[in-house]
Amino acid sequence: MTAPRSILIIGASRGLGLGLAGEFAAQGWAVTATVRSAAQQAPLRALPGVRVEQLEMTDPNSLEQLAGRLNDQQFDVIFINAGVAGPEHHSTAQASAEEMGQLFLTNAVAPLRVAERLLPNLATEHGLIVFMSSILGSIEAGAGLGIPLYGASKAALNHLVQCFVRTQDNPQLGVLLMHPGWVRTDMGGADAPLDIDSSCKGMVEQVSAAVGQPGLRYLDYQGNALPW
What we know:
Structural class: alpha/beta
Shape: globular
CATH superfamily: NAD(P)-binding Rossmann-like Domain
Strand order of the largest sheet: 3-2-1-4-5-6-7
Number of domains: 1
Largest sheet: 7 strands, parallel
CATH topology: Rossmann fold
Radius of gyration: 17 Å
Number of helices: 6
Distance between the termini: 41 Å
Strand content: 15-25%
CATH architecture: 3-Layer(aba) Sandwich
Number of strands: 7
């Protein structure tokens, strides 16, 4: 009997992360998913068969502890979803050093740290790393969409991922930068046209198709290639 595909989802306490965990589990994947604190575990615990781990993504000690608990477990996919919207004013003139530091640490630097540290837990011959990006991180397409600080943090993520891919010596490594669409979440707001289930079903379809496909791609939840 063939073992189910396995996935580690970083940041799954609510919204898209929780939706992804539920959709992957419903499609028969073996799902391990992280939350920032024990108080956030209940929604994931309600999903049959989902293993819940704890990770504060911006804390190197928390990342080391997770790596120790995972030990040598191998995943077909590592999906790094965690992120923040940044300051509500979206203004470079008003932005403080603390606000910008937290935004870029959470949305750009920490996801790469997670990928680098957990790379030994990715299946060598067909593994796929997925980063939750956004069309707002596209220099060509995202500049006029009105959320410049958040978009800049996602553009930084896209750049760091490209640099990361170029440093890897595994020609079989697959990497996706994924735009989920404009979704009705706490971050996306009530006016967004897309519901969580539709976005997650699309992303799961794209991820499932990309396993075993080497190289770097920047896609939306429907599989459309996005401009850098």
